[in-house]
Amino acid sequence: MSTEQGKQQIRVSPDGDRRRRRFFRLNEIIAEQTSRNQSLISILQAVQEEYRYLPEEVLTYIATALDLSPATVFGVATFFAQFSLKPKGRYLVTVCDGTACHVKRSMSIYDAICRKYDLKEGDSTTSDMLFTLETVACVGCCALAPVMTINGQVHAHMSPDAAVTIIDTLASRKES
Ligand code: FES
Fold it and tell me: In terms of pTM, does the model score above 0.90?
């Protein structure tokens, strides 16, 4: 075998490289969390914060690392609504539909965003993976109703037009 052929055999594909980085960070999270005796739920929360969702291969990896059955880890990940097994957009937009926001017509905000970005229930992430739109039941600042959050940042006293303008601004930043 020539030296050149040998080099080609050990060349790492971009996918392989991404995969290795992904699991390196995952190992760090698991080590940090287990050193603080955190529960499986806390570990999944930390992992989801990093990846924005819980990929199946990551759940299997966590099960092996924690010496749990995959069924246990998948069971927890699918039981709690806070966890997602589907990829989410870079910006997680949530429209509050708790009572205080609902009576102030928060769902008209949700509908306006759906219309503008061609989203619907069950298909709530834009095709460019920029936004995921969800509803949430009360984010704890009812005096500011109706409320929208973007990656956890609260936007108070929203109207449909104001909400769409904020999202349009984020979308245009991506294009520039
Ligand atoms: S109901 Fe929307 S913040 Fe409480």
Answer: no
Does any ligand 1 atom lie closer than 6 A to the CB of residue 99?
yes
Atom 1 of ligand 1: nearest residue by CA position:
98
Q: How far is the CA of 103 from the centre of ligand 1 (A)?
A: 10
Q: What φ, ψ does residue 123 adopt, rounded to 5°?
A: -140, 65
Name the β-bridge partners of 120: 123
**Which pair of structure tokens corresponds to residue 132?**
């995921």
Tell me the C-alpha distance between 161 and 158, whole Å.
8
In whole angstroms, what separates CA 152 from the centre of its chain?
A: 11
Q: Please report which residue ranges of the chain form alpha helices under DSSP H.
A: 3-10, 14-35, 40-51, 56-66, 70-79, 99-103, 106-117, 160-175
Q: Where in the chain is the domain with CATH 3.40.30.10?
A: 91-175
Residue-wise pLDDT tens digits, 123-174 = 899 999 999 999 999 999 999 999 999 999 999 999 999 999 999 999 998 6
Has domain 91-175 been given CATH number 3.40.30.10? yes
